[in-house]
Amino acid sequence: MVKCPICGKRVIPRTELKPARRGMYAVEPMNLYPNPYDNIVDNQAERETTYHCIDPKCYGEISEEEYDSIKEFEQLMGKPTKLPRIGDYDFFISYYSGTGATFAKYLKEHSKDIGNLNAFLDIENIPKKITKDTHEWRSYIDQAIENSKIFLLIMTRRFNERREVIREYWKAKDCKIPMLLFKQKTLDAEDLCSVIGSEPIDFSNLEYTEFTDECDLLTKVDEIINAKRKGKGAKVRKIRGWDISEKVIEPLYSEVKSNIKRLYNYNATLSDKYDSVIDSFWYDQIEPLESQKIDEFYNRLKKYTLILCEVRKLTTRMIHEELCRVKPDLKVGIQQHSGEGNFEINLSLKDTSGNIRTQKGFYIDDALMEKKSFKKYLQSLVPLEKIIDIMPIILTPRYKLSKSELRDFEEGLKIRVKQDKTYLLMWQERSELLNMGKIILRDMKT
Fold first, then answer.
1. What are the residue ranges spanned by the domains of the chain?
2. How buried is residue 84: exposed, middle or buried, by Cβ count under 10 Å (0-12/13-18/19+)?
3. Residues 6+ away with beta carbon under 8 Å from 355
4. Is the preceding peptide bond at 13 cis, omega within 30 degrees of 0?
5. Which of 42, 60, 182, 284 could lock 53 by a disulfide, CB 3.0 to 4.6 Å apart?
6. Residue 407: what are its φ and ψ, rounded to 5°?
7. Is the entire prediction scored with pTM above 0.70?
8. Any residues with CB less than 8 A from the CB of 42 and at least 6 apart, and which?
């Protein structure tokens, strides 16, 4: 099966009057739907078949010539192209030849001078007999990435528009190759965004190191890679003492602290900083036990957020069912709005000056999660005022519950909540996450 050069999925044929240039990627997305004008034949134009990725979000294309050659070879040999043996590399250099070739060549040329490193550069390491941008050439690139200890991306002007560069990035990410990103200092924020392929990338959200010229790039690559290889020594202590603190500990500390506060308030949690930090070189430098705790904490946060979402849906359903039990004569009208917030409490309040006012629209969902009585929960929302009267309202059909009906309604909800497995699981996860978060914050301070 011939695969897409971008994402690896199978390709399907498409015939066009005005085909894309042979051997090049298509610049427009594939149209999977039939064109009503395809039956109109233009005698002056030639039809040509190209092969597009089956995924409509991917822009991969293979010319008819390349498709035929790959197919013929697979039928002849019964297996993929056998490439020359590729050795292990300390790092793979990914770059855009139009603006980054000078930096890439300089880095490759002097890689032996910075700890006798073995770097892979396509124009140097791929045999000349292999034609660029062919299936065989890309297979060689993929094997080189898989056999490299580090994927090093040089971000220069318009690198984000190059399909091959982005394809190499996703290949390294899929293979879980540690990444080092180096950004030319003159690049702006828009130069770090790529919309090529099925998933957009904002490289500004990832950890990177800025450089000014070839010498500056070489110096910083030397410092980072050699520190990573040695594992101990002055350079590692310098990285651990300052860079890790700035690039990992400080951003994660603030986010873990925010998540603890959100857990207290039964809100959905955050993971933006964690998602951007874990793919960086610096995250690999923290103690394994510490990173294991952080990873477990964030994995459980995701689980907790899903449980919390289910609890909120469950609470809405419980409220409607209890209202139907307390007011069976209104059951038909209540059930017509079962997926909505159909119950609220209005309060008559008195401030410290003796002024009385009415405030509407309080909901009691969080009171159930916080295990508080309605009155205690409502008072916590207006701590500077005294509650004179509580007015529970069914919105549709419009009806005000009496005090006895409100007590019956509240007791029914409390009993159901205490027995519900989803609620019990949420409280357990929340308690354990709060303890984990406190331990992580304590360890980060030391």
1. 11-77, 91-230, 311-426
2. exposed
3. none
4. no
5. 60
6. -65, -45
7. no
8. 17
